[in-house]
Every structure is written in structure tokens, then in C-alpha cells.
Amino acid sequence: RSSPLSRTNSVTMTEQVHRGIPEAEFIEDVESFLKKYDGNCESAMKKQNELYGKYKFLENSLIGQKANLVNKLPEIKKTLALVTRLTQAQDEGEKTIQTTYQLSDNCFAKAEVTPNNVVYLWLGANIMVEYSYEEARELLSTQEQNCEKTLAELTEDCLFLKDQITTTEVNIARIYNFDVKQRRAKSTTTQN
Questions:
Q1: pTM of the full structure
Q2: Looking at the DSSP assignment, which residues form a beta bridge with residue 96?
Q3: Torsions phi, psi for 28 (to 5 deg)
Q4: Residue 60 or residue 9, greater confidence
Q5: Taking each helix axis from N to C terminus, what angle separates 41-91 and 133-191, rounded to the nearest 10 degrees?
Q6: Which of 2, 7, 60, 156 is deepest in the core (most CB within 10 A)?
Q7: Contact yes or no for 146/47 (Cβ under 8 A)
Q8: For 175, phi and psi rounded to 5 degrees?
């Protein structure tokens, strides 16, 4: 991926897309860029501000998705560790194991669990499914891997999006500064 400042094309968007996120193109030559808008800085600024708003909306969405996964991953890991412990206890012939479980926030209870090769997992939407230890370990391992992979992709997408937001902000500033410069030049020529 090239730096926004090293791009020579003055088009706002390129055909390059990063996982559905269009790449903002750095406007190097503002004057030739404005020719697409008949020299109208307001139209160009409006277009850039719309793009900026879309990027910010998408950034907030990705940050929310990332936060959900960050909260979900420890739960998956704890559940996987518990299923592994139950499997180990069953393999070693333990009759019961002592554990604590969470009733609600900051409220835990002690329990004795008899390993019987069956666990019940919440799948969401108030659905609980019975699994053998092996099936549960497979499911939870897959969920953990998918969660970590998605988390890495979201982190990469957020970084890419941050670059696009910065490029768009710079474009907006360049168009604004060009407009100010043009207005000053016009007012100077009309005064003379």
C-alpha cells in the first residue's frame, strides 16, 4: 500500500477496495481536481465531507464490532478451559470436581460437577444445546480461532480506515486552502 502523499492521480476514489472499504485518493493537484466540479470548491468540499462522514460512520461500526469480539473472546477461552478440565477429570476417573460459577455480576457460587461427557452451551438467542465434551471442544476451538481471526481483520480494517480518514481530512484542508487563495486573488485583482 502506497503512502497517500506519494500518489499522483488526482481522482478522489480509486478502484482499489480494502475488504469493501474504498480507498481515498490523495488530491495532489487541487486545480485539476476541481475541473471535475467546474471549478466549484463548494461542490468538491461537499463530496469530500460526504466521504469523510461515511468513513467516520464505518469506523464507529468497526469499533463496535471489535469491542463485541474483545468481550466475547475471554468467555470462549474460559468455557474452552472448563470443557478441557472436565475432559481431563473424566479421563482421570475423578467422581466430582469443585468449581465456582458466575450467577450475576460480582456474584459467584460454588458447585460440585460430575463429569458425564455432556455440557450445555448457550448459542445465543436464548438457545442452549447439549454437546459431548469432544464436540464442545471442537466448536469452542473453532469459535476462538474465528474470533481471533476476525479481531485481527477488524484491527487491520480500522488502521486502513484511519489512513483514509486522514487522507480525506487533508483533501478537505487542501480544497479549502485553495478556495481561500483563489478568493484572495480575486479580491486583490478587483481592488486594483
A1: 0.75
A2: none
A3: -85, -45
A4: 60
A5: 160
A6: 7
A7: no
A8: -65, -45
